[in-house]
Each structure stands twice: as C-alpha cells, then as structure tokens.
C-alpha cells in the first residue's frame, strides 16, 4: 500500500497540472458514478489527507479516491498513449484542455460534497505531512490503546495518517524499538512520532524513500525489504513476520532482534 508521501506527490502533480483548469470531459467507470458528468466544473485544488486524495471542484464537489494496494493516477497530454495498464483497469478519466488524468485500479472512488469531506476522512488521525500536524494529539491517540503493539498502532490511520509499512519499519529501527512492544512499554512515543514525521518530510519529493541517507541502489533502507540480510549496524540478520489485528489485516514487518529488543531495560 502506498505511503502518505506517495499520495502527497501524486496530489502535487495533479494539482500543478489540473489546478485552475476546466474539465471538458469526464468518464467514471465504476457503477455508482457511471452516469456522472462533471464537465464544465473547474478543478480548484488537489490535496492529500493521509493516504486519501481529494480533488476539489467548483460547485462544492470533491472527487475522493484512495490507492489502497496498487491504485494510481497518471497524467497524459491529449492524444498521448496511456501506459498505466490495460484499459479495463481504468476507473476514471478527467479531461482538461492541456491534460488528461487517468485513474487506474482505484478501489475507492466516489463523489462527496466538499463541505462533507469529513464523512470520508474525518476518522483519520493527524496527518504526518500536514503543516499543522498535531504532535500531542498523535501521541494521545497512540496511547489510547496501551496494550496494542506499537507496530499495529503505527499503521492505524485513526492514530496517525500517512504511515505505511516502509516508514513503520524504518522509524522503529531508528528508534531502537521492537514492533512487538506494547505501546505502554515504549519509552518515548514522542521520539517515534518525530522520527516518522522527519523521515516522511525528507522524502516527500523523493520517490526512492531513502532513510539511510544513501541513494545508491540497494542501500535506501535500514530494515524494510531486507529480510535475512545482515543489519547495517550490528550484522544480525533482519527478521520478518506478519503482524496485524486480524488475519485479513496482516502486514509484513521487518526488524533487527538485536537493535530492537522485545523488552525494554532499566
């Protein structure tokens, strides 16, 4: 599932291309919007809220989408060949004079009143990439379920919006905290929140998502994607497992058992 910075970059590209432009044609290929025509409306702005994408239009309407595992928006010039996947995977086509935005494999795509966006994003916790990020609220939401593992809590978008498996792994490694530690046992939640925000802000313009400071291929991450490989700090093999609140919500987690002990000391 894309991280919040991936959605942020997609929103930035769409906003730069479509912002201020009038829609001259729309084609929604999902049953609930099959007869919807937004032609004549102007794209006011495209913004990210956690992992949600909100395209605000004149007349008080918002096109809401979520990428989930492999959704994406692509931009093409008029007449340019679409390359985001086979045609049957297209869920939305939004045309302006200079650009055509094509949404592929979007599992969530709906239309809401702009003043009712809270119905689709109001459940989210503080957005790590928001200029107005509320650190204290994020910490309080994490602390609300003290017996839950920190690995599960960090992926709960109701606590902190925007974090995915990449930044969970990298944040916890840098903090020296096991993903299996209970929230109540984490010595400094503020440090984890600060690290996560710092990593995502540093990478919001960088699709490589580098957390080690080294952009060479294969050296981008400390723990994520490195199962069975030696830890860059202690040479212990990086471990991997599935973690989640239920069998249908399991996500892969990476950690170094030496650098991230499962019990706190002192």
TrEMBL record:
Q: Which residues form the Formamidopyrimidine-DNA glycosylase catalytic domain?
A: 2-91
Keyword presence, Hydrolase: yes
CDD domains documented for this protein: AcNei2_N
Give the top-rank taxon of the lineage listed in the UniProt record for this protein: Bacteria
Its transmembrane ranges are none
User: Which Enzyme Commission number(s) are on file for it?
Assistant: 4.2.99.18
Q: What is this protein called?
A: DNA-(apurinic or apyrimidinic site) lyase
Family, per entry = Belongs to the FPG family.
Q: Which UniProt keywords apply?
A: DNA damage, DNA repair, DNA-binding, Glycosidase, Hydrolase, Lyase, Metal-binding, Multifunctional enzyme, Zinc, Zinc-finger
Q: Which residues form the FPG-type domain?
A: 222-261
InterPro entries assigned:
FPG_cat (IPR012319), FPG_N (IPR035937), H2TH_FPG (IPR015886), Nei2_N (IPR044090), Ribosomal_uS13-like_H2TH (IPR010979), Znf_DNA_glyclase/AP_lyase (IPR000214)
């Amino acid at each position: 599932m894309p991280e919040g910075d991936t959605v942020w970059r997609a929103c930035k590209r769409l906003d730069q291309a479509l912002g201020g432009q009038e829609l001259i044609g729309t084609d929604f290929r999902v049953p609930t919007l099959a007869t919807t025509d937004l032609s004549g409306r102007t794209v006011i702005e495209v913004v990210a809220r956690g992992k949600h994408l909100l395209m605000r239009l004149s007349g008080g309407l918002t096109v809401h989408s979520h990428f989930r595992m492999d959704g994406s928006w692509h931009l093409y010039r008029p007449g340019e060949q679409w390359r985001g996947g086979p045609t049957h995977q297209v869920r939305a086509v939004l045309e302006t004079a200079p650009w055509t935005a094509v949404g592929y494999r979007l599992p969530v795509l709906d239309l809401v009143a702009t003043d009712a966006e809270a119905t689709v994003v109001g459940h989210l916790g503080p957005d790590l990439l928001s200029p107005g990020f509320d650190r204290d609220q994020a910490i309080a939401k994490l602390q609300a379920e003290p017996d839950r593992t920190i690995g599960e809590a960090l992926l709960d978008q109701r606590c902190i919006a925007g974090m995915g498996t990449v930044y969970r792994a990298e944040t916890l490694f840098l903090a020296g905290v096991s993903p299996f530690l209970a929230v109540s046992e984490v010595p400094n939640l503020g440090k984890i929140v600060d690290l996560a925000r710092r990593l995502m802000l540093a990478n919001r313009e960088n699709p490589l998502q580098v957390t080690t400071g080294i952009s060479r291929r294969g050296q981008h991450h400390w723990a994520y994607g490195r199962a069975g490989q030696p830890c860059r700090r202690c040479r212990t093999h990086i471990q991997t497992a599935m973690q989640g609140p239920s069998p249908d919500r399991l996500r892969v987690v990476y950690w170094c058992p030496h650098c991230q002990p499962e019990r706190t000391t002192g």
